[in-house]
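Fold this: NAD(P)H dehydrogenase (Quinone)
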Amino acid sequence: MKTSGALLLIFILGIVQVTSAQSLPKVLITYHSESGKTKAMAEAVAKGVSSVKEVDFILKPIAEVTKDEILQASAIILGSPVYNGNITPEVQAFINSWPFDGRPLKNKIGAVFVTGGGFSIGEEATMFAMIRSMMIHGMIIVGGEELEAAFGASAITGEGDFADREVQEIFLKKAEGLGRRVGELTKIKD
Ligand SMILES: Cc1cc2nc3c(=O)[nH]c(=O)nc-3n(C[C@H](O)[C@H](O)[C@H](O)COP(=O)(O)O)c2cc1C
């Protein structure tokens, strides 16, 4: 009798654990990156999200994201390199693939990050291209923790001291702060 009681308790605890693991809000961090700079920013965003307890995240390139992952995410943090002052065609195609009928993305949190070769040759325009699309879907837009990441996190990767190097710490910190803020707000909201 005692043994069966203990087994029942273990079974119930197992169910509770599985249920609570399943119900954690999820942040989808996704990006396009050809030479690794935007990927490095995405990893820093993930570091920020992972510092928040009871929030899960998925980190993967846009090419690997499924429709279910988009639908199930409580927040989407999207990253693009700047190409000719804009998002890349791959990021545009990804956004175009988001389900629209019934506006299933409405009230999900949205945030953005970019990397661009130079100062003031497209990084803000690229952030706003993604933000505009997110707002068309009814998403709630969130900027970074710092004033210097007000619209999202950006990194300069090809000009002056920032050329021919890894993405610099000052930019990675902005990305991390963005992830942490989105994580915290996702937790409050869900
Ligand atoms: C086709 C192409 C167009 C680009 N256009 C711009 C641009 O308009 N402005 C800018 O700041 N950087 C531009 N860049 C530089 C990239 O945005 C920059 O190198 C970025 O960090 C690359 O990201 P990735 O390493 O994740 O691919 C361009 C790069 C390519 C390949």
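The chain has one domain: 25-189. The first strand starts at residue 26 and ends at 31.
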